[in-house]
Design goal:
By secondary structure, the chain is α+β, with helices and mostly antiparallel strands. The protein is built from two helices and eight strands, in the order ααββββββββ. The longest helix is centred in the N-terminal third of the chain and has 19 residues.
Length: 133
């Protein structure tokens, strides 16, 4: 899939989600949340705001892979995680400790120098220790 067709597909998915807000008990709150998330996603995806932090992680595999995370002070907060040649923007989620983000089937949770990553439709999480700067 080309970058342009991916962007068009992502936009169509967002429009569908926004349009489904009419089914929500509080349609105004639903639409507001959808717009806030879309704006934050575009800001992080296209680097319209500077990252407030970055980290690199060594992930297991044959061959081993690297994951990177760029954190953004968007509203809501986002992280752009790059792994296996693809980038996924995720939104902050409640967490008792560490920093947890998610979007769709993907999750990123950084705690005490290790990132737990569930990438897209993968059935398991991988543990990736933080690389030294």
């Amino acid at each position: 899939m080309t970058s342009t067709s991916f962007q068009q597909s992502t936009q169509r998915d967002w429009i569908k989600g926004r349009n489904d807000c009419w089914k929500d008990v509080d349609a105004t709150a639903c639409v507001t949340k959808n717009y806030r998330q879309r704006i934050a996603e575009l800001q992080a995806s296209f680097r319209l705001v500077a990252p407030v932090g970055s980290a690199r992680y060594a992930c297991p595999g044959a061959p081993p892979a690297e994951a990177s995370a760029d954190f953004f002070a968007t509203d809501p907060p986002t992280v752009a995680v790059t792994y296996l040649g693809a980038t996924q923007v995720m939104f902050a989620l409640p967490s008792g400790s560490g920093a947890r983000y998610g979007s769709g089937n993907s999750q990123f949770w950084e705690h005490q120098g290790t990132a737990m990553i569930r990438w897209k439709a993968a059935k398991r999480e991988i543990s990736c220790p933080k690389r030294s700067p």
